[in-house]
Design goal:
337 residues; mainly alpha; Farnesyl Diphosphate Synthase; 16 helices
Length: 337
């Protein structure tokens, strides 16, 4: 038991090691976000204040700061501005996500839409995105502007693709990977590549960090989707079955459908065809997931992307910054918060 606890602490420490290495700049990122979201409109200020208070791991900002540090960026505050920008894009997508999914809770707190309604939440998400574009223009780098604007477009298209396949338990793995590449991995990839752009690195370093971010993002999302069905694991801010009740088809359900018999397949189809799913439906699905060892199969798939992410950093010389990013691959798969 002690060994497991030590391993979990080591995995979580990989996140804190990266955070500690850029902690002073991360504080400035938080201040930048607050400053950029100031508004004379009372409701806008209330909603953005509430959004900031809900916090989060700021993982995408950390990736921007960590990648910039790895590439030797030291002068100026462009890394701080763009880390804030990346976080605000993420925040906007979460607001839109919660509206689409009719989400009520995120990070253990009520969602904006459950308090102020869908209309206001969509507009606040748009407000965050518009502030981001202001910051991109202020940065003045066309490569950064092109990268982050195209990333925003990819995320929106990923949302539409996921909606298009809602309730399809026979979804192809390929389609699922397309969805999470657009919705999650694209922003991870942009966050890490920005660090290389800021430092005027060559194509090799830019592509290496882009590839690292993409595969880290894929690992992160597969782990996140798997946590939704991992009843053996208690994770802070996570409630088992959130994706299930929203009718999202993720990797655990896709692999489950592939491994079940015809009777079980038909039952799963019926469950996800419904507008609403019951606790009994969740219990049945979790029973099948245990029976067919689906959690293990999901993590096995994620390990493939972990290896790709870690190996891509061979383009860089050994350093503490490189080690922090390499260690983060384990955190993305096996974090406990």
């Amino acid at each position: 038991m002690g060994t497991v606890v030590q391993l979990k602490n080591q995995i979580n420490n990989s996140y804190f090691q990266l955070k500690d290495s850029v902690d002073e700049k991360l504080v400035l990122v938080e201040e930048k976000i607050k400053t950029k979201l100031l508004s004379d409109i009372d409701l806008v200020q209330k909603m953005t204040d509430y959004h900031i208070e809900t916090g989060g791991k700021r993982l995408r900002a950390l990736l921007t700061l960590g990648s910039a540090k790895l590439c030797g960026y030291t002068k100026g505050g462009r890394d701080i501005n763009l880390a804030a920008c990346v976080e605000m894009i993420h925040g906007a997508t979460l607001m839109h996500d919660d509206v689409i999914d009719l989400g009520n809770v995120r990070r253990g707190k009520k969602t904006l839409n459950s308090i102020w309604g869908n209309h206001s939440s969509v507009l606040i998400g748009d407000y965050l995105l518009s502030r981001c574009f202001e910051m991109m223009v202020e940065d003045g780098n066309l490569e950064v502007l092109k990268l982050l604007s195209s990333t925003s477009s990819k995320i929106a298209q990923g949302e539409v693709l996921q909606l298009q396949h809602k309730g399809e338990v026979d979804m192809l793995e390929e389609t699922y990977l397309k969805i999470i590449t657009a919705k999650t991995a694209a922003l991870f990839s942009a966050a890490t590549k920005v660090g290389a752009i800021l430092s005027n690195k060559g194509i090799k370093e830019k592509e290496a960090l882009e590839f690292y971010g993409k595969n880290l993002g894929l690992t992160f999302q597969i782990a996140d989707d798997t946590l939704d069905y991992n009843s053996d694991l208690k994770v802070f801010g996570k409630k088992i079955g959130k994706d299930f009740f929203e009718g999202k088809i993720t990797l655990p359900i896709i692999l489950l459908f592939q491994n079940t018999n015809s009777i079980e397949k038909n039952k799963l189809k019926d469950i996800f065809k419904q507008d609403n799913r019951s606790d009994e439906d969740l219990h049945f699905t979790l029973m099948l997931i245990k029976k067919h060892d689906i959690i293990k199969k999901c993590y096995k798939k994620a390990e493939h992307f972990i290896n790709l992410a870690s190996n891509s950093l061979t383009a860089f010389e050994e350093s503490d910054e490189k080690k922090n990013l390499e260690n983060l691959t384990s955190f993305s798969l096996e974090r406990t918060f």
